[in-house]
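I am writing to request your help with a piece of structural work I have in hand. What I wish to show you is a protein chain and, alongside it, a tokenised description of its three-dimensional fold. Could you please explain, in whatever detail you think fit, how the structure tokens follow from the sequence? You will find the record immediately after this paragraph.
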Amino acid sequence: MRSKLSSISFILFLIAVVSYLVTLLGLDKFLIIAVLCSAAGFVIALFSKSGMYKTLSLFGNGFIIFIAILIPFVVTTFIWTGP
């Protein structure tokens, strides 16, 4: 069962990457899909069996969350403070 969790997490990572790339092309509605798939994939990867898929899923989903959530938050809060 835990090895299936690794595969599910990796599939969610791939869906998140495709959704984020579509977001970069101009369709902003896909950003929420990318973030939700990445968050779900990250949590599932924490409970999955150790291996290549777990490692790729943790780093990949974490990277997407970092790029899509944390960087815009930091930029709008601390750098982009003027009108």
Observations:
- The helical segments are 2-24, 30-46, 52-79.
- Residues 52-79 form the longest helix (28 residues).
